[in-house]
Amino acid sequence: MKPVNVGILGLGTVGGGTVNVLKRNAEEIARRAGRDIVVARASARDLGRSRICDTQGMALTTDPFEIVNDPDIDVIVELIGGCDLAKQLVLTAIANGKQVVTANKALIALHGNEVFAEASRKGVMVLFEAAVAGGIPIIKALREGLAGNRIQWLAGIINGTGNYILSEMRDKGRDFDDVLKEAQALGYAEADPSFDVEGIDAGHKLTILASIAFGIPLQFDKVYTEGISQITRLDVEYAEALGYRIKNLGIARKTETGIELRVHPTLIPKRRLIANVDGVMNAVLVCGDAVGPTLYYGAGAGADPTASAVVADLVDVVRAMTCDPENRVPHLAFQPDAIVDIPVLPVDRIETAYYLRLTAEDKPGVLADVTRILAAHHISIEALIQKEPAKGEIQVPVILLTQRTLEKEMNAAIADIEALATVSGKVARIRMETLG
């Protein structure tokens, strides 16, 4: 059978890894796909740069549009990242009737609705397993393996940089800024780390997971994102002493009133498997009504792990190229006419438990004032710890764990607590989930 000709846009870490996996496992891949898959062309900004892959036998160019407009190329693999150029290239490829595989989470989260509509109109596929959690086949699990379930909620560690920082803070008692500098030196974090540490990268990925889980449109603009830069070494230590660990989670939950979409630091019981996912590893916990909770764990980045997902998509594309478009697995798991625009809840309408840390004067009546304020906002206390003041100090740290309450009630309570003359500074607040 005629080989499938692939054009790769971008020969960086993932592009080079994809070429390596395709060449190294060519025979095994052909046995699975039913045809040889050949990288015929590739584009890169600098053709003279040394690469992690062997480019022998590939026609190289600095102009990716040459590849998407080449009639001999069957499948485009978009690995350049970013949005504007990537979107233009993908839409051009679709218009030319080419199948597309991408690892671009921002492209899918921000423009996926348009991209998939065009792909459906042209009868081509756009697959994106590598866009979320690197080598973990979480898209396929949600879209196919759990198709018999109503997904109730999912929670994921879907940014390795943030997980590495929190793991180092816990294991070695280090401060956020110190670990961030090390992560940048090791290549885990960019020079501008805001996408990773402020939750934007995880928000892109959560947008995609939630759309597939619940059959809703992609809507990144409605995801609540909060970063980890305000987490202190003390918070990590107090959480550990209370039997919890702090993880930066992306959480999507379907409730009677709407969908929760949120990324933020979260206290979770350390007995949970996902609480023990450390370093740069990723994990996604999915709860379905039939199967219950299922956990997916693995490398969330890197050349070969991400290439594993890209190549799996290529195999799926080749298998389905001769199928009628109506008989293929839908891009977002649900048939396009069955996507429902369920309301996404604003963050002040979510309900969760909370960890609070405040600094108060060490004198009678202070805790009574705090508990009175919480009670006035219908917030019950699960646990309370008052630390001994340091020698010569008149202020002490107070840690409270609350039961579940609405975010808007907690916001109002925190404002009232911070207004107390006996409380200094801001109240540190971290949301808590049992994930049971």
Question: If you had to describe this structure to a student in words, what would you say it looks like?
Answer:
The chain has 436 residues and is an alpha/beta fold. The protein is built from 14 helices and 17 strands. It has three domains: 4-135 and 303-335, Rossmann fold (3-Layer(aba) Sandwich); 138-299, Dihydrodipicolinate Reductase, domain 2 (2-Layer Sandwich), CATH 3.30.360.10; 350-432, Alpha-Beta Plaits (2-Layer Sandwich). The chain starts with a strand and ends with a strand. The mean pLDDT is 96.
Furnish the topology, listing elements before pairings:
Layout: E1 4-9, H1 13-24, H2 26-33, E2 37-43, E3 59-61, H3 64-68, E4 75-78, H4 84-95, E5 99-102, H5 105-122, E6 126-127, H6 138-145, E7 151-157, H7 160-172, H8 176-186, H9 194-197, H10 200-214, E8 224-225, H11 233-241, E9 244-254, E10 259-269, E11 281-288, E12 292-299, H12 303-320, E13 351-361, H13 366-376, E14 381-386, E15 395-402, E16 405-406, H14 407-418, E17 423-432
Parallel strand pairs: 1-2, 1-4, 2-3, 4-5, 5-6, 8-10, 10-17
Antiparallel strand pairs: 7-9, 7-11, 9-10, 11-12, 13-15, 13-16, 13-17, 14-15
Helix pairs in contact: 1-12, 2-12, 4-5, 5-10, 7-8, 13-14
